[in-house]
Amino acid sequence: MAEEKQEIEPSHGPVEPSQGGQTGSGDSPRHHQEKVGIVTSAKMQKTIVVEVYRRVQHPVYKRIVTKRSKFMVHDEHKKAHEGDMVRIVESRPLSKNKRWTLKFRCHARPDEIHS
């Protein structure tokens, strides 16, 4: 019997340049990270500062610790005000510190609801 030599094909072929920076089939849009936080400052033009709180377990002491992060967020139409709860979505870099865009206001600030 003659032995047949089988060629082993690589598990992945040559990498083709993706269109528009997207990976995969190209039909689905990129998944951007979303966060919910409270507006701490709305004094700048088209920019707000959103503070996001998260609870994590301390690596050594195993206690739950609250950590916070502040994000500069692009607010094109100046919809958000200080104290509002908003949802923000990751975007391309818009300036030195701005990498997030306002998606929508979840809740208005408490004094705005009753008035």
Structure description:
This protein has a single domain, classed as Beta Barrel (OB fold (Dihydrolipoamide Acetyltransferase, E2P)). The chain has one helix and five strands, in the order βββββα. The protein has one helix spanning 110-114, and strands at residues 34-44, 47-57, 64-74, 85-90, 98-107. Strands 1-2-3-5-4 form a five-stranded mixed barrel. A hairpin with a 7-residue loop joins β4 (85-90) and β5. It starts with 33 loop residues before the first strand and ends with a helix. 10% of the residues are buried. The mean pLDDT is 81.
List keywords for this structure.
1 helix; mainly beta; 4% helix; OB fold (Dihydrolipoamide Acetyltransferase, E2P); globular
Show unreliable segments.
Answer: none
Average predicted confidence as pLDDT: 81
CATH topology: OB fold (Dihydrolipoamide Acetyltransferase, E2P)
Q: How is the main sheet built?
A: 5 strands, mixed, barrel
Rg from Cα: 23 Å
> What is the string of SSEs from the N terminus onward?
EEEEEH
Give the count of structural domains. Answer: 1
Q: Classify the helix fraction into a percent range.
A: under 10%
Assign the CATH class: Mainly Beta
Structural class: mainly beta
Instruction: Tally the helices.
Output: 1
The CATH homology group name: Nucleic acid-binding proteins
